[in-house]
Write a structure and sequence with these properties.
Blueprint (H helix, E strand, L loop, with lengths): L3 H24 L3 H21 L3 H18 L5 H18 L7 H16 L3 H21 L3 H25 L1
Helix pairs in contact: 1-2, 1-7, 2-3, 3-4, 3-5, 4-5, 5-6, 6-7
Length: 171
């Protein structure tokens, strides 16, 4: 039996924990370290998505975690990029029970997967993370994952500050 209020509380608690890794990924200035934290974030968001009954979230976060391992190990080739995009779209659409809102994680994973393959410097990677967070802020609010929406918002702000500091160093 599903107890939605309990699921929402448990899901938010797990999402809050996952958010720590998201913030860490934005704070660091090392590409590999950023992707390690992104993996842990996606892994725990996969679990929290189960409690929100968000099957699109489960699917896309599991794929994101797998992809982030490949990025971390420098194994994300063009063929793997296409593979992850196809899987994300096909499985994301197949399990989408949230209508238009359920498309946001699919769009977000395609965006970040392309960025994972093409972007190699930390400033562009940070910018791609920030753009990705915008999709997820809207999505998390829609599925009642308030802790993730707050964490994503805070992380976007931290990311912008970190990006500006990085750009300032370059000048």
């Amino acid at each position: 039996m599903i107890n939605l209020p309990v699921n929402i509380i448990i899901g938010n608690a797990i999402s809050l924990f996952a958010g720590i890794f998201l913030i860490l990924s934005m704070w660091v200035n090392d590409e590999k370290e950023a992707y390690k934290h992104q993996f842990l974030n996606a892994f725990f968001l996969t679990i929290s998505s189960i409690f929100f009954l968000s099957w699109t979230g489960v699917t896309t976060m599991a794929l994101a975690a797998s992809r982030n391992v490949m990025v971390y190990k420098d194994k994300l080739t063009f063929n793997w990029t296409i593979f992850f995009i196809i899987l994300s779209v096909v499985f994301g659409l197949a399990v989408n029970t949230k209508g238009i809102i359920g498309l946001l994680p699919i769009i977000a994973i395609v965006q970040i997967t392309l960025c994972n393959y093409y972007l190699k410097t930390i400033k562009w990677i940070k910018l791609s993370f920030i753009v990705n967070e915008l999709f997820y802020i809207v999505y998390f609010i829609a599925i009642w994952d308030f802790s993730s929406s707050v964490i994503e918002s805070i992380t976007a702000i931290i990311g912008l500050i970190s990006l500006f500091k990085l750009l300032k160093k370059e000048v």
